[in-house]
């Protein structure tokens, strides 16, 4: 099957940032995303609220330009004060034009 | 002697003992833990129940009886965060962000502390005003706004003020309390009758289960006590007592009953741990969550539930009665 190469951007962060991040991803040109609950341990032991539930994991398939913009945006706004991980992988995507 | 026996009966209530059981379970590293869905359901049930009951009582209370206590509550919502901020900033030498963050918690209210105080009053056979839940709703928001304002006015901030305000105003506790009050107000005592068995009979049991989880969470904060330092530990006990006694005294002056003043004291002394942490995390991300969560959940909540509430009732008997 014909596939094209896109970027899979994954952000794992505090639940409290979810709404704000999704709004900003929209502005950066993201057309869709997948949300899952995540738990784990990292350099920041403490989360905002014990009962806000687990962290959130946002995955989105985007073009390279948008992927760079997302990474830059997250780094600039959230790295300093929040628990956040962001990484980019190559993904072979079927029906790839859907995500551009 | 009377005070001592009321203290003993508070410590021996199922609610407080369930809290202690939660603490013990966490300390021995038991796998006991309420599923978060159950915890959330219980908190919705409790908040809606007190909102509804408050609304029904409001329905049969003449407006002029409520005005004085309502204005006092708003006043407390302004004074307590400013006082707490100055103690933290000047005496405790905390950073602006940390002082404002902690002040937001201590100005705002813990609905569960309010509920435990109300249960204590009924266990003691003391009558309190039914409209008090309306005051909880009034006390919740202003203090958080004031404390965040202090931080934002003094300095440009990294966090989002707009998102924080949205979080405070649309948080589940505000929506459920105010929504419940309005529903109760609209349907009145006769309309409430149909749902009363569910919201009345199960209430103390739900509260007991909830406090079990609170004990587990509070105990999990204890490991951070060393990190927060002696000043904040003392702050978490002394400032609530000052806020509480001030509210008890003023409550008597605006015409609240002794039990009503004592419950208002418990409200003013309590520190928020649901609405405030969420708003503060968004608005003041540079503030350290370990400070405000440990102080409010690990120190002030356990203090109030065990010793604080009987103290405010004793003070009310003294100052108001």
State the helicity of chain B in percent bands.
over 70%
The total count of helices of chain A amounts to 2
Indicate how many domains the architecture of chain B comprises: 1
Mind summarizing the main beta sheet of chain B? none
User: Can you tell me the CATH architecture of chain B?
Assistant: Up-down Bundle
CA-CA gap between termini of chain B: 17 Å
| Tally of strands of chain A | 4
- Fraction of residues in helix of chain A: 25-40%
Given this structure, which CATH class of chain B is correct? Mainly Alpha
Rounded Rg of chain A: 14 Å
In percent terms, what proportion of residues of chain B is strand? under 5%
What's the average pLDDT of chain B? Answer: 90
CATH fold label of chain A = Alpha-Beta Plaits
Order of helices and strands of chain B: HHHHHHHHHHHHHHH
CATH topology (level 3) name of chain B: Na+/H+ antiporter like fold
Helix count from the secondary structure assignment of chain B: 15
Sequence stretches where pLDDT stays below 50 over 5 or more residues of chain A:
none
Structure keywords:
heterodimer, A: 100 residues, alpha+beta, four-stranded antiparallel sheet, 35% strand, globular, B: 321 residues, mainly alpha
Question: What does this protein look like?
Answer:
By secondary structure, chain A is α+β, with helices and mostly antiparallel strands. Helices cover 25% and strands 35% of the residues of chain A. Chain A has 2 helices and 4 strands, in the order E-H-E-E-H-E. A 4-stranded antiparallel beta sheet of chain A has the order 2-3-1-4, covered by helices on one side. The longest helix of chain A is centred in the C-terminal third of the chain and has 15 residues. The radius of gyration of chain A is 14 Å and the shape is globular. Chain A starts with a strand and ends in a 6-residue tail after the last strand. The mean pLDDT of chain A is 87. Chain B is mainly alpha-helical and 321 residues long. Chain B has a single domain, classed as Up-down Bundle (Na+/H+ antiporter like fold), CATH 1.20.1530. Chain B has 15 helices and no strands. In chain B, helix 3 packs across helix 9 and helix 8 runs antiparallel to helix 14.
């Amino acid at each position: 099957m014909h596939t094209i190469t896109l970027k899979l951007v994954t952000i794992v962060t505090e639940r409290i940032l979810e709404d704000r991040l999704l709004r900003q991803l929209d502005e950066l040109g993201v057309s869709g995303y997948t949300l899952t609950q995540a738990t784990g341990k990292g350099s920041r032991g403490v989360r905002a609220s014990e009962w806000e539930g687990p962290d959130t994991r946002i995955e989105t398939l985007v073009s390279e330009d948008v992927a760079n913009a997302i990474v830059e945006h997250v780094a600039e706004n959230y790295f300093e004060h929040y628990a956040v991980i962001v990484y980019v992988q190559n993904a072979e995507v079927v029906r790839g034009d859907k995500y551009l | 002697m009377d005070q001592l026996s009321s203290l003993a009966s508070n410590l021996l209530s199922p609610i407080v003992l369930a809290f202690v059981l939660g603490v013990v379970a966490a300390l021995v590293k038991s796998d006991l833990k309420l599923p978060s869905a159950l915890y959330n359901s219980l908190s919705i049930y409790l908040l809606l129940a007190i909102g509804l009951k408050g609304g029904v009582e409001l329905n049969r209370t003449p407006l002029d009886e409520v005005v004085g206590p309502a204005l006092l509550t708003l006043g407390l919502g302004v004074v307590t965060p400013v006082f707490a901020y100055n103690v933290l900033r000047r005496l405790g030498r905390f950073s602006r962000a940390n002082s404002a963050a902690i002040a937001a918690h201590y100005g705002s209210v813990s609905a569960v502390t309010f509920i435990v105080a109300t249960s204590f009053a009924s266990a003691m056979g003391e009558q309190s005003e039914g409209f008090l839940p309306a005051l909880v709703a009034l006390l919740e928001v202003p203090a958080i706004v004031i404390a965040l304002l202090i931080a934002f006015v003094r300095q440009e901030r990294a966090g989002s003020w707009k998102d924080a305000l949205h979080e405070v105003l649309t948080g589940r506790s505000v929506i459920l309390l105010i929504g419940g009050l309005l529903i109760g107000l609209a349907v009145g005592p006769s309309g409430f009758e149909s749902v009363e068995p569910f919201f009345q009979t199960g209430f103390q049991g739900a509260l007991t289960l909830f406090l079990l989880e609170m004990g587990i969470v509070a105990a999990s904060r204890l490991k951070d006590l060393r990190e927060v330092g002696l000043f904040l530990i003392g702050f978490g006990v002394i400032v609530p007592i000052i806020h509480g006694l001030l509210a008890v005294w003023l409550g008597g002056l605006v015409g609240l009953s002794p039990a009503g003043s004592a419950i208002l004291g418990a409200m003013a002394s309590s520190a928020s741990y649901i609405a405030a942490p969420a708003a503060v995390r968004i608005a003041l991300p540079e503030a350290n969550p370990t400070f405000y969560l440990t102080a409010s959940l690990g120190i002030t909540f356990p203090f109030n539930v065990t010793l604080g509430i009987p103290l405010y009732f004793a003070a009310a008997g003294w100052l108001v009665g």
